[in-house]
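Annex B. Sample input.
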Amino acid sequence: MTQLMELLARHRYTRELIVSTLVGLAAYAVCALFVLIAERANGRTFAVYKSANALHDLAYAVFYKCSIYNVLMFPLFAWFVPRKPRPGLVEPVAIVLCWVIFDFLNYWTHRMQHSFKPLWALHSVHHSQRELTFLTANRIHAAEQLFSGLLLLIPALLLGISPPHWFPLLMLQLFSETTQHARLDWTFGRLGRLFVSPAFHAVHHSIDASDHHANFGRVFSVWDHLFGTRVEYAGRARCYGLEEQPEEESLAAQFFRPLRELVDAGDARKYDAPVVR
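Annex B, continued. Sample output.
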């Protein structure tokens, strides 16, 4: 134990990684507990979490939430992120503005993921889940996760937000993504026209292509209202996944299949998606 403490004392970044990982895991545990209590109150059982598909999603959660991914990508992000970013706006204002800009970029990126074959090859992993749960928020191909992480850097660095102050932004994102994949019938009422609700996002995971090529909002559903990509819904979709995907894939297949499709779609031709409503 003494040697471990000495190691942490000598290596500041190692200490930061461990602390951020533990705090992130604690925050995710709170989100998961909140969702499970809400699902039970909504009349849901927990049998679905015993399925192989749910366990695959849990493996993704471990990979990302336990910082395995962060350790692998640390050299790249350390190169991009300066330790002393330039002065920017007042932190609270910058964080809110960063969140809005990031979500706006995420909306258009999400639309492109459904429009171009190379991007869809990676993003289809997220849509291959046929038993949607809050764990599905973690089912993201590593290449797509890398792209999203780099995208977040753009508004954060431009607004002068230092890495330690990204935590509120990341926690808000975590809570939103976790709840919107939950098995809940919530629509948020009038607030549903501003924020993505579980019912709104469940339609996006529908096996019906005319639905999963719409409702692109990540946190704010207002973008779908503004740009005409909102699908009206009377409740949650009942069937999820993709018709062209096999019933169940191994984790290795989920990683390598998109890469093979990415090579096949190297001409970057537009994906033949239906016109969104």
